[in-house]
Amino acid sequence: MKIKDTVLIGMVSGILAPSIGILIFYQFNYSEETLQQFIDISIEGKILSPLLSLYAVVNLGLFYLFLHFDRLYSARGVIFSTILYGILIVVLKFVLN
Predict the structure, then answer these.
(1) Relative orientation angle of helices 58-68 and 48-56, to the nearest 10 degrees
(2) Residue 67 carries which DSSP code?
(3) Tens of pLDDT along 55-95?
(4) Alpha-carbon span 15 to 2, nearest angstrom
(5) E strand or H helix that includes residue 77
(6) Distance CA 88, CA 91 (A)
């Protein structure tokens, strides 16, 4: 089975990988609260932007994985989704402070 090489696949995987990482963090550390309570606690405690920064690093591995298998358009999609995460992190850190 060969995965297509499209920017959309890279964007979707680049958005999902850090999101899944944050959900795993939530499940292991804050499972007694609801997801909405976890997000509220993260925003109030100002840990949401560092969490997003930490889990956006997952995209680095994903990027190199796509490069290794010569999926250059998918790698571009991962970079685009990482830029979107960066914009979200800046907004959370400086605008919603």
Answers:
(1) 20
(2) H
(3) 889 999 999 999 999 999 999 999 999 999 999 889 888 88
(4) 21
(5) helix 72-90
(6) 5
